[in-house]
Amino acid sequence: MTRGIVTTALLLAFVSGSESSAQQTGIGYKPAADAASKKTMLLKDFQPEPALHAAVHEIQRAKFPVIDVHTHTNDAAGIGDRVDPKEMVARMDRLNIKTIVILTGMWGDQLQTIIDDMVKPYPGRFVVFTQFDWSKINDPNFSQLMVRQIDDSVARGARGLKVLKELGLGVRDSTGKLIPIDDPRLDAAWEECGRLGIPVFIHVADPEAFFHPIDASNERYEELIDHPDWSFYGPQFPSMQELLAQRDRMFAKHPHTTFVALHFGSWPENLDFVEQTLQKFPNVMIETGAREGELGRQPRRTREIFLKYSDRIMFGTDEGAGEAMYRNYFRWLETNDEYFPYAQYPLQGRWMIYGLGLPDDVLEKVYHRNAEELFARFKTSK
Questions:
Q1: What does the mean pLDDT of the chain come to?
Q2: Which DSSP string do the residues of 279-317 spell out, in sequence order?
Q3: What does pTM read for this prediction?
Q4: CA angle 322, 323, 328 (to 5 degrees)
Q5: Looking at residue 166, which CATH number applies to its domain?
Q6: I need a labelling partner for 300 at 20 to 30 A (CA). Which of 23, 106, 187, 211 fits?
Q7: Order of strands across the sheet with 200-202?
């Protein structure tokens, strides 16, 4: 018998033996014929428990004092959680949070209420920002009105200006035209903020997926089904790239005003773009608000950005006032843990994140030193 015949015979015997073994044990090597018809579980019901055995380091209290520069807790606009101020301070003490910044403070009497109820009774624990009054956009004196409004808000105790994504995506004039981010009617207000030494915290655009069709290829499909009004896909909206171009023209036009590009520069899915923004505009800082999920899934590139621009990144959450949420952020920044849920999982996408394990000097800058330096620029006299 030749070698080829022997090999063939052995192979046939092996296959025959495997088939016989499978018949005896019930273990096969091909998909079940009816597998496709059984894949009927709804996406909302799919909650897999990872079988990965990985290190877990729960951080109960931040390693250094924290200034959360992006919250809406007890705000005037009704966006954030409502928490009794005494209880909020108690939470902050447990978590080692020195100060939280309430961005949506409105203006006038509404702003004054926050200052009277939270800022004055708890010195150093709360900071509040003012906003534009868009109801006056069609007034021919809009620019001067907003400068006076900013001056009044600062005199009351506001320490910054917050601009929501409605600029560029929602605010329209009497003709129905969207107001662009670099509209010249806003120039005087940007300049006034620079003169007063107060920062402008600006939210431009939204996650990239919000500008894509809501279909099976959209990684934030579930979130957009819950919030269809968060979709900016279609010809009635500017593209994400156009919004960021408007913003960047505004940054360039006002080099003496400090801008904080919220949500990690507004495009954390594209960290090359974020880095280019920081390189081009020395008057721009960024913060981490509500982008832990986006950043935590790309830990190596994110860590590079943190190390390289450690003087220009601040800690922000924009995710409520819960203690578990804060501890999740601390774990992300302080540990090298792998493959764990971000704070709001799975609401923003079905992926896990990885810890950055930031060194102490960087961590301390991000947690509080950069924010302290920023707010110290305020000019107490006009």
A1: 94
A2: HH-TTEEEE-TT-HHHHHTSHHHHHHHHHHTTTSEE---
A3: 0.92
A4: 105
A5: 3.20.20.140
A6: 211
A7: 161-163, 200-202, 259-261, 284-287, 313-314
